[in-house]
Amino acid sequence: MIRVLSVASLVILALVLTVLSAVVSRQGETTVVLRFGKPVRVIEEPGLSWKLPTPIDRLRRIDTRLAIVEPRPSEFLTADKKNVVLSEAVCYRITDPLAFMRTVKDGIGLELRLSDLVTSFTGLLLGQYELDAMVNVDHETLAFDALVIELRDHLREACQEMGIEVEQVFIKQIMLPEQNKTAVYKRMRAERDRIAQRYVAEGEEEAARIRAEADLESRTLLAEASRRADIIRGEAEAEAMRIYGETYRGNLDFYRFVRSLEAYEKIFDEQSSIILDENSPLLEVLREGAGALHAQPETYREP
Amino acid sequence: MPPTDRFRRLVRASIIALSADAGLILLLYALSRVTGSMVLFADALHSAGDFGVSATVLIAILVGHRFLTAIWGRFLESTLSLGISVLLAFGAYQLLDFVIVNPPERFIPARDPGQVLAFAGVSLALVVTFSMSRYKRRVGRELDSPMFEAESVHTFADFLTSFGVLITLLVGYFGLDVERWMTGIIGLVIFQMALDLAWRTIRRLRVTWPEPLSRGGIAVGNGLKRVWQQLPERLQIILQAVLWPRWPRQLAAGLRHGLSRWRRWLQKLLVPRWLDSDWIERRGRTLVAGQIGVVVALYIGIGLYSVQPGQRGIELGFGRVVGLREAGLHLHLPPPFGSVDLVDTELVSRLELGFRTDLTYDGPEPDAYLWELTHTSGRYRKVPDEALAIAGDENLIDTNLLCYYRITDPVQFKLHVDDAVSVLRAAFAHEVHSAQRERSLDAMLTDERGAFESELLGRMQARTEALEVGVAITRVCLLEAHPPIPVVPQYRAVVSATEAKSEMILTAHQFANKLLPRSRGQSETRIKMARADSVTQVSRAAAETGRFELRQEAFATDPGINRVRMQWEALEKAMAGKPVTVLPAEAQRRVYMPSSEKETNDD
């Protein structure tokens, strides 16, 4: 029984020692072995390795994967005295775990330091760039990429001593402070109102032009028609006169006779009253029979 | 009173029971924290209750020994064991109430080291509770202590409870959730034990009822009897009917009978005849070996995992990537030596900028997603800080974008980047807003959308390649681009103004279209009429001259006669039907006519 117990205790002891001495280092992390707090070994390769049992050697695991820190947005002033609010992100990885442990200690310290540095460098650089260099439809004036590279290089240099390699800096957003935003909205509204009014005025102008053109065309058409009608009528009159002239020219007496008869027929209309002198040759026929037939009729009209 | 051997053994047994309870509390509480199981936490609480009971038993032993005679001491023990049975029944009632009224928190089965540890821990608790139950029964029987016998029953109930927990964990390991059923069964078992214990204690009390208590009872009875006899007969009848009716006694007898049958029925139902402490003790070694075997098997079983189609499993052994596994069943080294990361490599994921989609949303949605509503209501949530941006002409623009990506290198995605999605989102925001700052608002709203999307796709592909995050960008979509919401009414007013402009122009065209054909018609009419007039005039001239020539020819045949005839005919025609007034000669042609408005016609 005692033998069984002692074997069991030895096995358990060996197991415990194994567990306390084994180091399983994962891919994507660097393990630092600390002997009574003093770093004695840095394990960069993943896999199984060994150390002295736990109270003597302890482990500190440092994540060396690409990580990101996103500081809170901050307000800055550009070279042309314009206020902007920038949101940034920094991609980094820990390249020197010992320097990192010495200078930064942990993740919270790292986030704090990176945030401080980003804010400080951004303020410094924005003071040298005008807003036009970042916001512009003219590509020649833009210098945004240069700004980002300059910011990254500054950060890289400053973070080197902390054992951190800054891979990339992202300026996620450049925004105006709330107060300026309201002003921009106001300007955008005014601009839109102006465009709307211009459209209405243009509509009125175009409509008036179309109406006037139509009116002009209409009147021109009618005037032209009148001109042509008058010419046609004149030609007709001329033709008629010519016909009359040619016919009547040789028979003027007969024409005069026939025409006077026609004129009489026309002059006495239905409302005419005829007043005859009792000595009128017309009445002679009645008085004397057919002898007066050759006499000229005499009529009296109003003067 | 000098300490007897019985007293010493009782105290020692109590202290052992207390220590065992304390150990169990710590063990079960730690296991409940590791696994997050409510059943284990309830078991730990139960053990805390047991600790209290054991402490009470110890105090009772000390008090009995110091102040009471043996008979009174036993009476106190019996009363306490009755109390324990009441406590047990109350615990059972609470468990059953918990199961019936509030369904317990679901135990989520997970195949992890925590659960195997819990399994091992509960196995240990089983061994401890079983040994303690056996020990207490032996002490109770040897020293004739009803309290310890009661305690032994109580501890066996604990053993059964832990056994139920063990079954729950084992079944849960294979994905079956029986926590609620098991809690109910445990409650019924404890209730049965409480009934059994109460039954046995009451029977024992009838034998060990202390003499003075009986004597006191008889004296009180005699006194009451004398008082009773003094009362008038009629009052006696009334009081007997009120104070000592028959029905409570009949009810009590019925209850006793029912309880004993109920207890036996429950025992038959829940505790099989063979499952007693002797049976377990006989197979102790086999059972313990079996337990250890199961624990080891479960530990290795943690390494079993299945990779679904469209996934890849990154298998790690001692922290190093040992392989990328395709779909199917695989086994990795059990933790902490091995692990697996499953990555969806075929899935096209979407990265949203300016909004987030709630995939679980099940509420109402708007009839149409207008600018004011897009990605702000229904299943969408707006992220204004991402959506609003400055355009190149210093106007503000509101956009919602999507970036589709696929994981092409699972190892890079998981092991080279801490949070690849956050990195991608930051890069996407950087590229989107910087491209927007190079374009005017109007261009972004209209003709530049396609160019913007393809430029972004190129930029993002270059970014992800440079960052080595293990993804491929497949597409970038500009879902929405519109002016900021406060300016939208003015934008719509511009559209209305263009409509008004078109309307005015169309109305003018309408006027022109009506006027010009009409004028053309009129002018045509004028010309045609003139032509008609012309033809008429010329024809009339021809007709008149023709007639003239004919008449002249006829006239020339006899001018004298014709002249007279024509004159007279003309005279007739002119004067026919007209009033004729003949004036006398004396009138000397002076005539006054009333008036005349006749016109002459020279034609």
Structure commentary:
The complex is a heterodimer of chains A (303) and B (603). By secondary structure, chain A is α+β, with helices and mostly antiparallel strands. Chain A has helices spanning 2-21, 97-103, 107-126, 144-159, 178-248, 252-267, 281-288, and strands at residues 22-25, 29-35, 38-43, 47-50, 57-63, 67-69, 74-77, 83-94, 164-175, 274-277. In chain A, strand 7 (74-77) and strand 8 (83-94) form a beta hairpin. The longest helix of chain A has 71 residues, at 178-248. Chain A is rod-shaped. The model of chain A is unreliable at 295-303 (pLDDT under 50). Chain B has 18 helices and 12 strands. Chain B has helices at residues 5-35, 38-67, 70-100, 113-143, 146-173, 179-207, 211-230, 233-243, 246-270, 277-282, 284-301, 384-387, 410-416, 420-436, 441-445, 449-467, 488-557, 559-575, and strands spanning 304-307, 311-317, 320-325, 328-331, 338-344, 349-353, 355-357, 380-382, 388-390, 396-407, 471-482, 580-583. In chain B, helix 1 (5-35) packs antiparallel against helix 2, helix 1 (5-35) runs antiparallel to helix 4 and helix 3 packs parallel to helix 5. In chain B, 30% of the residues are buried. The chains are: A alpha+beta (303), B alpha+beta (603). Strand 10 (274-277) of chain A pairs parallel with strand 12 of chain B.
How do you describe this structure in short?
With 303 residues, chain A is of the alpha+beta class. Chain A has helices at 2-21, 97-103, 107-126, 144-159, 178-248, 252-267, 281-288; strands at residues 22-25, 29-35, 38-43, 47-50, 57-63, 67-69, 74-77, 83-94, 164-175, 274-277.
SSE layout and pairings?
The complex is a heterodimer of chains A (303) and B (603).
Chain A: H1 2-21, E1 22-25, E2 29-35, E3 38-43, E4 47-50, E5 57-63, E6 67-69, E7 74-77, E8 83-94, H2 97-103, H3 107-126, H4 144-159, E9 164-175, H5 178-248, H6 252-267, E10 274-277, H7 281-288
Antiparallel strand pairs in A: 1-4, 2-3, 2-5, 6-8, 7-8, 8-9
Helix pairs in contact in A: 3-4
Chain B: H1 5-35, H2 38-67, H3 70-100, H4 113-143, H5 146-173, H6 179-207, H7 211-230, H8 233-243, H9 246-270, H10 277-282, H11 284-301, E1 304-307, E2 311-317, E3 320-325, E4 328-331, E5 338-344, E6 349-353, E7 355-357, E8 380-382, H12 384-387, E9 388-390, E10 396-407, H13 410-416, H14 420-436, H15 441-445, H16 449-467, E11 471-482, H17 488-557, H18 559-575, E12 580-583
Antiparallel strand pairs in B: 1-4, 2-3, 2-5, 6-10, 7-8, 9-10, 10-11
